[in-house]
Write a structure and sequence with these properties.
3 strands, 3-stranded antiparallel beta sheet, mainly beta
Length: about 90
């Protein structure tokens, strides 16, 4: 299971605010590479000047999501992020 969270980070204040999240259950053959793409839950957000985006990929997000029943490990390579921008 992947839990994905996108944060708005304010470096000046030392804070981060959750913008959106998503959860995905990945299926496939253990030990075999697979390409995965996903979308976060839709939201509207205005990123202020000087703020940064942080994307977290994790396997735990308690208490929002219960831990997976099956133990698993993730190895991530060739990551990419596309963020739509509307003016």
């Amino acid at each position: 299971m992947w839990l994905v969270r996108l944060f708005d980070v304010d470096p000046a204040a030392g804070t981060k605010t959750l913008i959106t999240r998503a959860v995905y259950r990945i299926t496939g053959t253990p030990g075999q590479p697979q390409q995965v793409s996903f979308e976060l839950w839709p939201t509207g957000w205005q990123l202020l000047p000087g703020h940064e985006l942080t994307l977290e990929l994790t396997q735990t997000d308690a208490p929002t999501w219960r831990a997976d029943n099956q133990p698993a490990a993730l190895t991530l390579t060739n990551l990419g992020l596309t963020v739509p921008i509307h003016n």
